[in-house]
């Protein structure tokens, strides 16, 4: 008895998909539209929350290491009151690069879950590798995150110290980018002993 009922139900669903009424089609479109809006709103809120300083330092290995270093820099506290937070420097603003960075960050979350960097000691043991990955990423995108606030074209070289003016002028001529010289701008330099690379 149950088998014919099930077959009848499947047949009616199939008939509906083949020839939906206007009411059914309208209901489907409205439901799809509402579902799409809900998905986009949820996606946007998730991106917004995961791009916050509070989210970044909720991981204790970040809070106890690099965040403490960052709090002593001009990017955290300065005379103008402008603060660059973790995502300002580590997450691109543009949609596609931001999504690529989020996918890359999943490896860092994997490291935390698997216990690779879940203590300050383990974090320090992997600091050089993580720093090199970040330097490479920033070099490859021409220090895009830095350039959101700092740009060679807008610098008043006359207001800079002589050595800074010379270095910035040289960087323009040689095609250097911010990360080539400013590796220690917000965090301590890892132990570079014996490192022979482009860094």
- Per DSSP E runs of 2 or more residues, the count of β-strands stands at 0
Helix content: 55-70%
Nearest-integer average pLDDT: 85
| Rg from alpha-carbon coordinates | 26 Å
N/C terminus separation: 74 Å
Features:
199 residues, mainly alpha, 2 domains, 11 helices
Quick rundown:
Helices cover 63% and strands 0% of the residues. It contains eleven helices and no strands.
Textual characterization of the structure:
- The chain has 2 domains: 22-51; 52-181, no CATH class.
- It contains 11 helices and no strands.
- It is mostly helical.
- The protein starts with a helix and ends in an 18-residue tail after the last helix.
- It is elongated and about 85 Å long.
What is the topological layout?
Elements: H1 2-18, H2 22-50, H3 53-57, H4 60-63, H5 66-70, H6 86-90, H7 95-113, H8 120-140, H9 144-147, H10 162-174, H11 178-181
């Amino acid at each position: 008895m149950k088998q014919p009922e099930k077959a009848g139900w499947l047949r009616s669903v199939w008939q509906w998909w083949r020839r939906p009424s206007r009411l059914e089609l309208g209901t489907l479109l409205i439901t799809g539209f509402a579902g799409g809006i809900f998905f986009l709103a949820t996606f946007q809120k998730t991106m917004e929350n995961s791009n916050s300083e509070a989210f970044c330092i909720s991981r204790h290995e970040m809070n106890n290491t690099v965040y403490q270093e960052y709090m002593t820099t001009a990017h955290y506290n300065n005379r103008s009151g402008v603060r660059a937070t973790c995502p300002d420097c580590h997450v691109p603003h543009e949609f596609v690069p931001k999504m690529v960075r989020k996918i890359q960050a999943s490896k860092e979350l994997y490291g935390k879950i698997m216990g690779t960097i879940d203590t300050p000691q383990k974090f320090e043991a992997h600091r050089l590798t993580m720093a090199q990955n970040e330097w490479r990423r920033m070099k490859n995108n021409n220090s895009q995150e830095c350039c959101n606030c700092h740009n060679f074209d807008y610098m008043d070289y006359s207001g800079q110290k002589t050595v800074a003016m010379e270095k910035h002028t040289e960087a323009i001529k040689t095609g250097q980018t911010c990360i080539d010289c400013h590796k220690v701008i917000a965090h301590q330099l890892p132990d570079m002993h014996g490192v022979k690379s482009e860094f």
